[in-house]
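WARN  no MSA supplied for this record, continuing single-sequence
INFO  ligand: flavin-adenine dinucleotide
INFO  echoing inputs
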Amino acid sequence: MTARFDIAIIGAGVVGCAIAREFSRYRLDTILIEARSDLGDGASKGNSAVLSTASDTPYGTLECRLVTRGHERYRREAPGLGLPIVTLGGLTVAWTEAEAATLTAMQRAAVAAGFHDAVLVDAASVYARAPHLARGVVAGMWEPEEAIVDPFSTPYAYALDAVANGVELRSASPVTAARPVDSGWALSLPTGEIEAGLVINCGGLRADAVDALGGNTDFRIRARRGQFLVFDKSARPLLDAILKPVPNPASRGILITPTVFGNILVGPTAEDIDDVDDWRVTPDGIAQLERAAETLLPALLDHEVTTTYCGLRPGTEQPEYRIIPRPERRWITVGGIRSTGLSGALGIAEHVAGLAFDGMIEAARKTDIVPVRVPSLLDDGPRPWHEAARLAADAAYGEIVCHCERVTLGEIRDALASPVPPRSLKALKRRTRVMFGRCQGFFCGARVQAMFDAATTSEAAE
Amino acid sequence: MTALAAAGLIVVGAGPAGLAAARAATDAGVARVLVIERDDEAGGLPRFCHHPGFGWEYSYRFESGPGFIRRLLGALDRDRVQVLTRTTALALRPGPEIDIVGPACGAVTLKPQAIVLATGIRERPRAARLVPGRRPERGVLTTGQLQQMVARGVPVAGRRAVVIGTEHVAFSVLLTARRAGLQIVAMVDERDRVMSFPLLGMAVRHALGVPIHLATRVLDISGESRVDTVTLNGPAGVRRIACDTVIFTGEFVPDAPLARAGGVALDPRTAGPAVDQLARTNLPGVFAAGNVLRAVESSGFCAIEGASAGAAAAAFVRRQTEWNGTAAPIGLGTNLLYMVPQRWAFEPARQLLPASLRTRIDLDRARVLLRHGDEIVWQSLRRSLLRQRRIRIDLAGLPAGLRGTPRVITVDAVT
Ligand SMILES: Cc1cc2nc3c(=O)[nH]c(=O)nc-3n(C[C@H](O)[C@H](O)[C@H](O)COP(=O)(O)OP(=O)(O)OC[C@H]3O[C@@H](n4cnc5c(N)ncnc54)[C@H](O)[C@@H]3O)c2cc1C
Ligand SMILES: Cc1cc2nc3c(=O)[nH]c(=O)nc-3n(C[C@H](O)[C@H](O)[C@H](O)COP(=O)(O)OP(=O)(O)OC[C@H]3O[C@@H](n4cnc5c(N)ncnc54)[C@H](O)[C@@H]3O)c2cc1C
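INFO  complex generated
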């Protein structure tokens, strides 16, 4: 018999995971289907990790509204999930009189749009907030609410919450065809067909291809690559704010920001690419980022680079989100979540649930919610060995295996035993930060791989 | 717990330097030494390196890495030296004070009289070298990771490997690779000559038939779950090599975050703690030895440094020496990349730490001169000084010299 679900969400990026969590609050059979072996392995794995207030999105748009709401909800709900929020404040810096004039206009518009905390500051107060900034600042805009978050644990926490509350997560399952059936769709997965009364396409970089399976061709994905340099934790004292350039019409420009893990991030670049699988860091990209570091925060260059990476923004022909309800087709498209999806996901999820409950499905809200918490990966947050009782009860929390990121045997073991286990080494890195540090596995790579292989082979044997 | 607190000396790192330091300290009369090692066994890097070539300068034997470590461990006086593995030194503070955590001891702060930092080195991985391309899930390794995988029986699961770098360690990879069932299909270096012994390069080329591409950079790495291709750009143009493994070798960096975060002054030229000839850092009671001082010396040389630091620390623990903060920096001539020790203390001219230098350029014949002010106090003529090769000089018995006289060491070509 074909399994039948009320809702099938295609794509477990940060958006699909947030939507799955939203529907897990209702008496519904929901399945979250992901092509890759792990969740959060598409656009959601490579971003700037800034929790935006939406003050830098085009005002009056759906994106602006949902990011505002997403930000609000993140502040309220993330702490309960164990997700850190480090509110550093955003500092947009003008280097010329022309940029200063743009900045003044931006600040006025921001305040008019309701972002009352955006204030203009003079060069002296810019340097007071960022003393290592290069000389030559003309003016700045300070937004105290801008924050940094954990981009890897966020979709994981949403998925874990969804699964704990009854959603089925099926990974390594690309949807290859969709066939209309009585009141809904039959979707082809590698293991056979499943049926769903409502399909929600959260396909990210492949949202156009997934839409096409259901016969919808409203937009095409235009991927935009953003490359990053991650500087060693030794550079962290150089900066304690999110530094932003004055945006130009082509791009929001290259940021320099601390991460919650204690590194300094420089990026992203903005390059239109044809291939949505082109996850390459390029010599040009690296050179552009090094130049940016050198001109904005020259002292950075005295520090080692820990790693480089890139992300692909799932843009479309238009800047706006492509959230399209199709009640008669029992399909909702959630595409084009280009560059604010991490901040906006909870707002998007609420909006999409609203669309679904507007005639496409009905369900009662659950009263008994199983709470979940993800472990904190914060650099200066509490570590397991700080709790004497926990350490006394389980010595594995006292044995550090990954020395650069200080991840204990106990944490790796716990991550491997999660109800949403990491299905790849990269997934284990994202869950725990093992091998993510300056040595990239020189010290711990062999032990970590042995633990991962042992866990996955024992699971396969069961 | 009380046993830990009783240690007058704590050694961080149980590699050759740390183990030799512990031995030297008990020889010099320290009653209790605690060696902290974060890995699951003592031994440092040599533990994973099964080919011969370890310990020569220290024990005049040419042993395998594990063999040398067994010798060092066997030489410890177990009544006085406790080696605590799986235990990490988390933070260092003036005092000296040290926070450690481990499954056996929990999280504790200790206040020994002295600490020897012997935390060693690591290789600069692919990412830090800014090598472009994709980041395949598997197949991009450092020598250290490859060796550990082989030593711990973790499958490397590759067949064709490209080796980046031609320092000594790159040739050590050839031996490890064979054990892992990997065939080396090319060696690559950005520099224009083999950085290890030229003879080794010739042997590899001719006897093993491995092509060595010099003055060549990695343009791209591709593959998703596993490396599939490496693209090189060199004098012969752009070439693509099909392979499933890329091993980044050499470019060692001192593993000094504990020292740095603890306020130990680092020498920007070595990226390791700056020390005087008694292995003393700027922090009273804190000594440093071995490769954490600079990358990279042989295990035997590091053990000698460790023994020197252990003896110096013992004298301090036993209050035979004062902490002397008036050491003067040694100036470097333009051809020199670095010198360890970086400072010379005005004390009875007892040199403990062997001095080691590196030049920036290759020199056929060169004169090494140490001046105090205008006076030449030491000199030596050396042949074939190569960039990556240590120049060891023995300055024992030098006059302490006058306070305030600048000391400068130079290496200049003679024709
Ligand atoms: C460089 C860069 C910087 C950014 N900075 C920020 C920032 O600072 N703050 C912020 O809020 N946002 C930021 N973003 C934006 C944010 O990362 C994205 O908006 C968000 O990740 C999009 O999530 P998604 O779930 O829509 O897409 P994805 O994460 O791509 O998820 C889509 C999922 O669908 C799966 N899928 C596709 N096709 C199928 C199929 N046929 N069957 C099954 N599954 C399928 C994919 O495998 C994928 O996992 C940035 C993005 C980039 C690239
Ligand atoms: C592939 C390879 C091949 C080599 N081949 C040779 C050779 O043929 N002959 C030769 O003589 N030399 C060789 N060497 C060099 C030799 O390994 C080093 O010279 C030697 O290991 C240096 O000793 P060390 O004690 O300074 O440091 P290491 O051996 O690096 O030991 C440092 C120890 O400190 C520990 N540690 C670091 N930080 C902490 C902390 N915070 N808390 C607790 N513990 C800590 C580490 O876990 C490690 O065990 C080779 C090196 C490599 C990588």
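The mean pLDDT of chain B is 91.
INFO  checksum written, moving to next record
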